[in-house]
Amino acid sequence: MPNEAPAGAPLAIVTGASSGIGQAVTLQLLAQGWQVIGLQRGTPAIAHPAFRAVALDLADGDAVSRAAATLPTPQALVHAAGVMRGGRLGELPAADAALMWRLHVDAAIRLADALLPRMAAAGPGGPHRSIVLVGSRTAHGQPGKAAYAASKAALVSLARSWAAEVVAQGVTVNVVAPAATDTPMLADPARAGTPPRLPPMGRLIRPDEVAALVVYLLGEAAAPITGQEIQVCGGSSLPR
Predict the structure, then answer these.
(1) Which tens digit of pLDDT belongs to each residue from 136-168?
(2) Total-model pTM
(3) Measuring CA to CA, which residue among 76, 88, 82, 63 is closest to residue 28?
(4) Is 148 a catalytic residue?
């Protein structure tokens, strides 16, 4: 069994901690006194005594399984790593669809398989333990983004299923689903053909705004919230 987290500060494992929403979540957790292990491909952008970066290609399933087996049992897991490749029917390369599935869904399954049973083993009555998967409002469907939407919709099914399995052990599992968010992913040349839709509020969502909800769901006050998909949409889900 891997070593447990050191006594004292709670431990969170965050994927995609080198940029975007994952980085914003990591910074907010560190500011609140958490320890954080960041699983990331990019160069570490955070220098903090309570932060440790682990270089990992989250689209490599075998590598994810090997790494997960060595990680300490966290109090929280946040799967924020993501990529967007768009294309209408008959246009999206199969490799791009497979990449999104591996990164968004397969990585989440492998991490949960390794960590969630250990998180649940403590049983009810202890500190709140939580998984938050970063989804997307696109999961409800959008032209030109079918494969991306499907991979994000799968996270909702995973979260609800896992939540039902561990609710009695005091562990929650939720999805935070933002609309277009101002992250480096929006500037990726590979998604130039599918530009983001500006939310009705008139601006992009900020990563720190998404992170604030994620961090709330990891806290004790959110212990009754589980199996939910919560949108941070800037009005995108309102009838118009």
Answers:
(1) 999 998 999 999 999 999 999 999 999 999 999
(2) 0.91
(3) 76
(4) yes
